[in-house]
Amino acid sequence: MDLENIKNGIVELIKKAETDLPPDVVNALKYAYKIETGVAKIQLDAILKNIDLAKKTKRPMCQDTGIQTFFITVGIDFPKILDLKTLIDDAVKIATIQIPLRPNTVDPLTGLNHKDNIGSYIPYITWEFTNGNNVSITAFPKGGGSENMSKLGMLKPGVGIEGVKNFIVDEVIRAGGNPCPPTVVGVGIGGGADLALKLGKKALLRPVGTHSKDKKIAEIENELIKRINDSNIGPMGLGGKTTVLDLHIEIAHRHPASLPVGIVVQCWANRRAHMIIYKDGSWEVK
Amino acid sequence: MEYHLTLPVSKDKIKKLKVGDIIYLTGKIFTARDETHHIMLEKDKLPFDPSEMALFHCGPLMKKDKSKWIVVSAGPTTSSRMEIFEDNFIKKFGTNIIIGKGGMGERTEKALQKYTGVYVAYTGGAGALAADKIDEVIGVYWLEELGMPEAAWIFKVKEFGPLVVAMDSYGESIYKRLKKR
C-alpha cells in the first residue's frame, strides 16, 4: 500500500475543508442573504464573496484555520490501522506549509507557538471502529473565536426541558457577535460533562438544514432556532434576522442527579470535508 | 453614509462618523491581538509609530515567498478579548480607528468618546477577501517571540472595507442598542 499517496490524500482533505465550504452551508448563507437588508446584507455579501474567492484561489477562507480536528471511523479490517495517526500528523505538518495553515498550536503554559499545528493531543482525533475495510475521515478544523463561546451547563434536573431550552437560548444570545454569526449551534443534552460537550461538537457534523430523526427533538430544534433568531443579533452581531443558520441536538441518557447541557458554537465557516480510504490505499475526497 | 478615508484620519472626520455608516480605509494599519497589546503598553519605545495607523484586531495567515511576506488570509479576530487593554491603549497611542469584530465593552466605549475614536466592524471570517485589499506588508515586529498570529504586522491597505461604524465617538454602539431590545 502506498502510504505516501494516502498522506497526500489527507493533505487534499484538509485543503478541501479550509478552502471550500460544503453546499448545505453555502445554500443556508445564500438564503440568509436573500432575506436580510441593510448592514446584515452587507455582511452576508462579504461572506459569500469571500467563499467564492477562497474556492477560486484555493486559499483558506478564514485566517483562523483552526485546531485540526478529525473524526475517524475505521473499518477493523483496514490493513494499515496503526499507520493512520502518523499519516495524519505528517499530513497536518505538510498542509501547514503547503496550503498554508496558520500555526495555531500554542503551549498552554508558556504561550510558545509550536509552528506546525502539532502538539500534545493535537491534531485532535476521535476514533470509532466499525466492521469493514474502509476508513472514513471527516476533517473539521475548528476556529477559536466560536469555540470560546462553548458552554457547559450542569443544570438541576428539576428545571426540566424548559430550563434546558432557556439555558441554550440565553447562552447563544449572550455570545452576541463574538462567534461570527450566523452560526451553527451544536447541543448535547445528557450524559456526563464530557459527553454533553462531545455530543454538541458531533452535532455540528450533521448537514445544515437537516433535523433530528426524533420528532420531539426536531421540534425543540425548530423552536430554539426561532427564539434565537428573534433576538435580532444578526450577522456579526450587527442586527438582523439570521443569528443561527441551524441548531442540532444530540442526546445521551443521564444520571438521575445530573442534567448536563453542552453547547458548541460554530462560526458561519462551518468547515467540513470528508474522505474515504479504501483497503487498497486508494482514496476519495468529497 | 459612506466614506472613503485616508489614514491618518483627523479628529474632525472621526466626529462625522456615526453608528451605521460604512467606511473604506486607505493607508497604513497594524495588527495587534492580546500579546501585542500587552507588549506595546509595557514598552517605552516602539519600533513603529502606531499613531498614524488604524489598529486591526487580526492574527493573519501569512506566507513567506523568498524574502517577501504575502498575506494569505486576514480577517478580524474577536475584539472583546482586547477590552481589558483598549482604553489604556487608546490613551497611550492616540489610536482613533479600531477594526475588529463582535464589538467591545464599556471601557472602550468611554475611551472612544473621551479621545474621539471609532470602532469599525469588518466581516468576521472574510479573510481571503480582506487579504485582497492589502497591497503591501511593510513590516513585522515580535514575530519570533509571539508567533505569526500574535505578532504586530504593518500593512498598507487600499479601500479596506466595507467597515461598519459600530461604536462612534458619541458613546453610541450598535451592540448596546441590540442588547437593550
Q: pLDDT below 50 for ≥5 consecutive residues: which ranges of chain A?
A: none
Averaged pLDDT of chain A: 97
Q: What percentage of the residues of chain B does DSSP assign to strands (E)?
A: 25-35%
Give the C-alpha Rg of chain A. Answer: 19 Å
Count of helix runs of chain A: 8
Distance between the termini of chain B: 24 Å
Shape of chain A: globular
| Helical content band of chain B | 25-40%
Instruction: Write the element-wise H/E pattern of chain B from the N-terminal end onward.
Output: EHEHEEEHEHEHEHEH
Uncertain regions spanning at least 5 consecutive residues of chain B: none
Strand fraction of chain A: 15-25%
Overall mean pLDDT of chain B stands at 96
* Element string of chain A (H = helix, E = strand): HHHEHEEHEHEHHEEEE
Largest interface: A-B, 48 and 42 residues
Largest sheet of chain B: 5 strands, mixed, barrel
Describe this entry's structure for a reader:
The complex is a heterodimer of chains A (286) and B (181). Chain A is an alpha+beta fold and 286 residues long. In chain A, 39% of the residues lie in helices and 21% in strands. Chain A is built from eight helices and nine strands. In chain A, a hairpin with a 5-residue loop joins strand 8 and strand 9. In chain A, helix 1 (3-19) packs across helix 4 (84-98) and helix 2 runs antiparallel to helix 3. Chain A is globular. Chain A starts with a helix and ends with a strand. The mean pLDDT of chain A is 97. Chain B has 181 residues and is an alpha/beta fold. Chain B contains seven helices and nine strands, in the order E-H-E-H-E-E-E-H-E-H-E-H-E-H-E-H. Chain B has helices at 11-16, 34-42, 83-93, 106-115, 127-131, 143-146, 174-180, and strands at 2-6, 22-31, 54-56, 61-65, 68-73, 97-100, 118-121, 134-141, 152-167. In chain B, strands 2-3-6-7-9 form a five-stranded mixed barrel. In chain B, strands 4-5 form a two-stranded antiparallel ribbon. In chain B, helix 1 (11-16) links the parallel strand 1 and strand 2. In chain B, helix 2 packs across helix 3 (83-93) and helix 3 packs parallel to helix 4. The longest helix of chain B has 11 residues, at 83-93. The radius of gyration of chain B is 15 Å and the shape is globular. The model of chain B has no long low-confidence stretch (mean pLDDT 96). The A-B interface holds A 39, 42-43, 46-47, 49-50, 53-54, 57, 59-65, 100-104, 106, 111-113, 115, 143-145, 148, 176-180, 231-239, 267-269 and B 20, 22, 35, 58-61, 63, 72-75, 77-78, 80, 101-103, 121, 123-129, 131-132, 146-150, 162, 164, 166, 174-175, 177-179, 181.
